[in-house]
Amino acid sequence: MGLTMSQRQAVTKTIAARYKRAGRVEKGTILDELCATTGWHRNHARKALGQGLRPRVVRPRRPRVPQYGEDVVVGLRFCWAVLGAPTGKRLAPVMGELVATLRRFGELDVSDELAAALTAMSPATMDRRLAPDRAAMTLRGRSHTKPGSLLKDAIAIRTWAQWDDAAPGFVEIDLVGHEGGNAIGEHAYTLTVTDIATGWTENRSVPNKARKWVIAALADIAKVLPFPLLGIDSDYADLVIMPTPPRIALSGRESALIRSA
Prior knowledge:
Shape: flat
Oligomer: single chain
Distance between the termini: 66 Å
Number of domains: 3
Radius of gyration: 34 Å
Number of helices: 10
Largest sheet: 6 strands, mixed
Helix content: 40-55%
Strand order of the largest sheet: 3-2-1-4-5-6
Number of strands: 6
Order of helices and strands: HHHHHHHHEEEHEEEH
């Protein structure tokens, strides 16, 4: 199998600079090598080597006129929403049956030409025309944790226990908000506590992020854990549990951080 056109052009461009600097005899040798590699005639090979170092003027391609107008996109958007916003590869195969069913029940009022355009649209075209609508559905602000301005890594915090990931009792905690995508107003949270060494996980629901609810949930979890709760690693600070009876010790800074979390 011979070289493709792109491969021939790459070979020619690679040796064009060497051909330009070569002498008469060496140029003949280079031409013979290029003709044997590409199968070109010597005259064509000589011309290709001369053009190999010339900069090519690339003109922007004229934008194509959209094949599908806004009326077709409106119908596509409706069909896409009916099926729960699938990708083009899932939507295109069922468009014929879907459009016919929606028209029969009066849910989609389109002409025969527009219906034919909907069923003929390719999956890639569907994805391109629905890209703005898909982007508008992207959830934003999934996390309620905001980066703090404190230099936590540069501030040494003295605790009552040495942090040990291999020993049970040192846990990671996080609050998961259940606001349904709209963080305005008050909504419930789930406090998740996971032991790093064993993977033991406890969950508690809290009405909001107020300090008293979080502390009460942590105290309740500390009572039911099968091992003493020795340390807590949160998004904001390291907290340490005092010895039995389980009691959570917080500094003023840490309390303020939990209140504003």
